[in-house]
Amino acid sequence: MRVYLDHNATTPLHPEVLAAMLPYLTHRFGNASSLHAWGQEARSAVERARTTVARALGSGDKDTLVFTAGGTEADNLALQGVAAAAQARGRHLILSAVEHHAVLHAAAHLARRGFEVTHLLVDGQGLLDPDELRRAIRPDTILVSLMHGNNETGVLFPVAEAGRICRERGVPLHTDAVQSFGKLPVDVEALGVSLLSLSAHKLGGPKGVGALFVRRGTDMQPLLHGGAQERSRRAGTENVAGAVGFARATELMLQEQAGAARRLRDLRDRLEGGLMAALAGVLRNGHPGQRLPHATSLAFAGVEADSLVLALDLEGIAASSGAACSSGSVELSHVLTAMGLPQERVAGSVRFSLGRDTTPDEIEYVLAMLPPIVERMRRVNAGRSAAAGASA
Amino acid sequence: MIPGTDGKVVAAMSGGVDSAVAAALLVREGLPVVGITLRVWPSLRPVQADARFDSCCSPAAVEDARGVAAQLGIPHYVLNYEAEFDREVIQYFTDAYLAGETPNPCVPCNSRLKFGSLLTRARGWGAERVATGHYARIQRDPGTGRYQLRRAVDSRKDQSYFLYILTQEQLAAARFPVGHLTKEETRRIAGELGLAVAGKPDSQEICFAPGDYRAYLRQRVGDALVPGTIRDTGGAVRGRHPGVAFYTVGQRRGLGIGGHEALYVIDLDPATNEVIVGQDRDLWTREVDLERVNLIAIEALTAPRRVLAKIRYAQAPAPATMIPLAADAVRLCFEEPQRAVAPGQAAVCYDANDPDLVVGGGTIRRKGGISNRQ
User: How far is A102 from chain B (nearest CA, A)?
Assistant: First the structure.
């Protein structure tokens, strides 16, 4: 059996999404900026897609949506674009310490160019106190960036309250909703955000396409310069098939959302409960209620997470130790570390993220396979420590 | 049934041709093989800009190993061993030099990483064995039941010297599939299998400090280098040195001492931080004391034993007698004097009548001093 429980890394392309994209990868190949019929066909497909995704966010104005090459570009455009536009007014940004690297590293890049970045801390359950934000905002603050649902723990931030605080203080709020979009209702009005990042491949869409919602009146400079695409906010020939796929994935997600969340939560809770019942020394990272329904981060005492992930892979089970990283190897999670968890607990933490294709049988398979693997690893590690102790 | 107990073998793949062929031979045997590459880089960059980045376990080597695993159709994983390598190998290496010794970093890399923590992890994955591309052989002694370590068939490539440290438990779990091959045969098999690494040059140097190790020390522990005095055997001051770490017993160059006589480093005194120089005749000795001794062919040394011993990798073994001193200490009495015995180096003993058989080995101790390093 092969069980894929790493949907936070990426999800399989939905067959209906592929079907919707195929014409734009074959005979409907026009450039959306061209004047002729081929171009017009592509243009109308892109704009229909824009309308679909914008509406899914509660925005009736499709032109608030900028298509990008993914979540990372959306985050970078938000931070660097707003910083470039607002630097005459101020050079201070606020983010949480548990943001995705796309936000953290974009901010670090700005910090090297004379911007000042305040990182808000979270508590041991990954929660953010809105009062921390209140205290951190200064007259020269030009942007606040707080993620919606955390990619490692699933913990939700009080973005709506942060939105109210930011509006009172006249500071734009950006949220990275890459993980939450598709699992929870995401509404730019309810959240009160000025900018919001999305990625298509987290919800059954293709890789290489994302979007940034930009509220009207938000000052932002482009990252990429060239043609006037995306209302001069993102130069480059439109990824027509990508936008169409993103929109189709969004429609499918909206049809399923309410039932899917309940189904995923039940499966996730079964996985958590089953593992905690079968094994001693299993701790959940993050607040048990205030989180996304489809994922869990669990710390297994006495094992190394990368070793456990490898052992699971050998049995056909995909999980993740921390965020996926380009080198294919693992660093200690900055999210769990920022929560103040001890290093051994961080090093033993594995993330399981479920998706629309996850079945109860798959969860039972994991519940059958994982506990003996952990027990074996603990036994071997204990034997080695004892041997080391005896020879020392 | 516990999942995954199916005779799996973990193949430690450095990215070179030997470990690639080792993995390939195991696959050919029909064993389920899991390829592992320990990533010990990139936080440690070689000092020289032109230094080879294709040395063992470098980023390019990781990609080579990944490619070989894909060709063999085996799963392959890269484990981040930066911190562990730093602690167990590099720290040992720099500590030894700073203490006036000459280290063998491959020895702890074998005992503590490949057949240490990697073996433990492998067992956690349900594997019983770890295979490497070392040129050496393991056999079980039918009489005593002990696992024997033997020289490789290809004596020019033999690496048993770097493996003398392995315990019985480690040898029981180790496999050296290319130990029965000559290097030419290994390359031929790699070529036949179409492995992309078939023509890769052999690595000769210390993987993390290619070129001049002194430049590496300067970069890594420059602050700990203390200049001191160069004295001769008569006690006369002959010059200054930038740190004992830059010297090895037997070294002639780099002393900066003028005059007609040829002078060599004959001792490095960590207590006084002095480099002692003398003439060639001062470098020769018959007696070499070993500490942290590991015995392989025998369980204990209870009486003097005739062996063939070598005090550095690139040397032919010479007749000597092993004399027990303490639980893990022995004295080697060579029949002929040995030149430039460097404390910190390994001395490895082979059986006098069965010269492929490793009896055991240990770390050369500085004369007149007992190292308190662990």
Answer: 22
Domain A3-8+257-387 has CATH 3.40.47.10: no
Instruction: Tell whether the model's pLDDT for residue A83 goes beyond 50.
Output: yes
This complex has an ipTM of 0.86
Tell whether B369 is covered by a domain. no
Q: Which CATH class is domain A15-252?
A: alpha beta
* Cis bond upstream, residue A185 (ω within 30): no
Judge: B3–A327 Cβ closer than 8 Å, yes or no. Answer: no
Same domain assignment for residues B300 and B264: no
pLDDT at A325 over 70: no
pTM: 0.90
Does the distance separating the beta carbons of B80 and A331 come in below 8 Å? yes
Interface A-B: count of C-beta contacts within 8 A: 54
Hey, are the CB atoms on A311 and B124 less than 8 Å from each other? Answer: yes
Nearest-angstrom CA–CA distance, A373 and A309: 10
What kind and span of H or E run contains A195? Answer: strand A195-199
How many structural domains comprise chain B? 3
Distance, in Å, from the CA atom of A366 to the CA atom of A296, rounded to the nearest integer, reads: 14
Interface of B with A in 21-50 (CB under 8 A): 34, 39
Tens-digit pLDDT profile for residues B143-189: 999 999 999 999 999 999 999 999 999 999 999 999 999 999 999 99
The 8-class DSSP code of residue A163 comes to: H
- Inter-chain CB proximity A313 and B120 less than 8 Å: no
Residue B369: what are its φ and ψ, rounded to 5°?
-135, 150
Interface test with A, best of B40, B125, B130, B328 (most A CBs within 10 A): B125
Q: Is residue A166 among the annotated active site residues? A: no
